[in-house]
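During the no-cost extension, the postdoctoral fellow (Dr. R.K.) reprocessed legacy sequence entries with the updated structure-token encoder. One reprocessed record is reproduced below for audit purposes.
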Amino acid sequence: MKGEKGALFLSSLLFMAILVLMQNSLYGATTLKTQTKIRASEFTLYDLQGNQVKLSDFKNRPVILFFWTTWCPFCREKFPVLAREYPNMRAKNIELLAINTGEPKYRIESFLEGKDIRFSILLDGDSEVAYKYNLIGIPTFVLIDAEGLIQFSGNEFPSDYSRILNLE
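Re-encoded structure tokens follow.
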């Protein structure tokens, strides 16, 4: 059942991604947003080195979740932006977790080869975490404040993320 649920979710996610791509190509980039000010759902995933990572590992710290796939052109565009901004995030004690949704580890490793990515890449192979966070497409950014509340969820990375996370 879990495999069927993951496959159905991944198919739905792909369909939504195609709709977002079509919308963006026809009308220009439009930010999609979901409900905020709710408690972020706990999750446990593994990184590329096999280390277990829980959202609760970052208790009392702001966290940015970046849900992505290797085949998403908008996700690919965000990697250099996030890589450049990551040192500024770390200076503000913000953790960035890039959560790949529904892809095998070898594909992710191949995609990342030669890229200087210093933030954590987590594997959500069965899309369970993406499902918990009610993704509306990819990429999706979820900004969680130090209290564990979602302050922003949308498909565009907000340049004022520090303000949104109540750090300014």
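Residues 19-33 have pLDDT under 50 and may be disordered. Helices lie at 2-27, 73-91, 105-112, 128-132, 161-164. The remaining legacy entries will be reprocessed before the final report is submitted.
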